[in-house]
Amino acid sequence: MDHHKTKVNPLFLREEELRQSIELLFFAYRDFTSEPDAILAELGFGRAHHRAIYFVGRNPGLAVNQLLDILKITKQSLSRVLGQLLREGFIVQATDARDRRRRLLRLTAKGEELERLLTEKQLHRVARACREAGAEATEGFRTVLRGMINVGDRHWVPLDADSAAM
Amino acid sequence: MDHHKTKVNPLFLREEELRQSIELLFFAYRDFTSEPDAILAELGFGRAHHRAIYFVGRNPGLAVNQLLDILKITKQSLSRVLGQLLREGFIVQATDARDRRRRLLRLTAKGEELERLLTEKQLHRVARACREAGAEATEGFRTVLRGMINVGDRHWVPLDADSAAM
DNA sequence: CCACATATGTCAACAAGGCTGACTTATTTT
DNA sequence: AAAATAAGTCAGCCTTGTTGACATATGTGG
User: Fold this and answer.
1) In this structure, is residue B1 part of a structural domain?
2) Closest residue (CA to C1') to nucleotide D20 in the complex
3) Measured from the CB, is B130 under 7 Å from any atom of strand C?
4) Most buried by CB count within 10 Å: which residue of A140, A153, B65, B121?
5) pLDDT digits (tens, 9 = 90+) for B143-159
6) Is residue A88 part of a domain?
7) Which of B6, B144, B163 to mutate to test the interface with A (most CBs of A within 10 A)?
8) What residues have CB less than 8 Å from A148, skipping those under 6 apart?
9) Which nucleotide is nearest to A72 (CA to C1')?
């Protein structure tokens, strides 16, 4: 619609290409979250519940502080969501034997069931996109995404494909 | 932390790899939005303001309906944000000569300045990640992201690097 | 021309999920 | 014994999404 100056910048990619990447991220993330969001809405939950359930499911025995570090929200924000999930029996907590101040979180069977229901859609979306793009593209996809994460938080997602997230 | 069954599934990638991709998306998007969010908070704005400014800047002369189609929110949600941006002089609207019901949106100089300030951080983050990962990885990154977008909305982000978003 | 559809805007009420600040209770560390 | 840490709670605020109802201007098809 308007003319772009095709700036030859010192960024290796032209600004036009970088902006397209920004837009791809926006649209992809928007659609990536839309399916679980719709299911959550029916259950009276929101996206924050999915995030809590997801990361507890992936890291059984996670402490509250660690979950806060992953989500980068305040404990007051988390407590609303986590409190609901505990009261409604999706998550249970147990006192850590080695440090009795800590509460270690785990999914119940009910929690695992909901986690699967929600994450399934996202797994299929990512799987389809990766399959269609090919193995090499998938590798690049993961490498660039990883490079976008603040260095201090990259340890949450391992480089090699065989280690778990914790 | 727990053992994963290394399911040989019909999805071309194992579930472990797919889950890692989901986590990469979460962390990357979380950090991708954090810098503009901090600036916006100081100005009394939120992420929704950035999105409106961004897409109007990228598509000068965009109609309100088109912006709604991009953002996939209700017009009532948009009107709050857009109203502020209009009143505070970041965006102007002009009646479309060919269809006088339509209001075509454009950034003012002030709006362009804010847009650049906000998007700059994201451009640098993406540029760095792409540069470090290499040209081939970047290509794959873009291809997979594109494949994650609902087909009906892929037209907003062109395939070839030289066409604009509209 | 009239009826209908479309584009935009507005008012009101509600909910999710962020935030800050203040304060408590256990427990561990120093 | 004091300080730091982990967790939890209460209260209030903001942004940004939602629904529903309605108003106005303009375009379109019969």
Assistant:
1) no
2) B76
3) no
4) A140
5) 999 999 999 999 999 88
6) yes
7) B144
8) B28, B31, B32, B125, B126, B129
9) C18
| Amino acid identity for residue B163 in this structure | S
Q: Is A25 inside a domain boundary? A: yes
In a domain, A91, yes or no: yes
The separation between the first and the last C-alpha atoms of chain B, rounded to the nearest angstrom, is 47
CATH number of the domain bearing residue B100? 1.10.10.10
Q: How many domains does chain A have?
A: 1
Please answer whether residues B127 and A13 qualify as being in contact, where contact means their C-beta atoms are separated by less than 8 angstroms: yes
* Closest chain A CA to residue B129: A147
CB neighbours of residue B68 within 10 Å: 16
- The residue whose two tokens read 């986690």 is A115
Model ipTM? 0.90
pLDDT confidence bin for B25, thresholds 50/70/90: very high
CA–CA separation, A103 vs A97, rounded Å?
10
pLDDT tens digits, one per residue of B90-127: 999 999 999 999 999 999 999 999 999 999 999 999 99
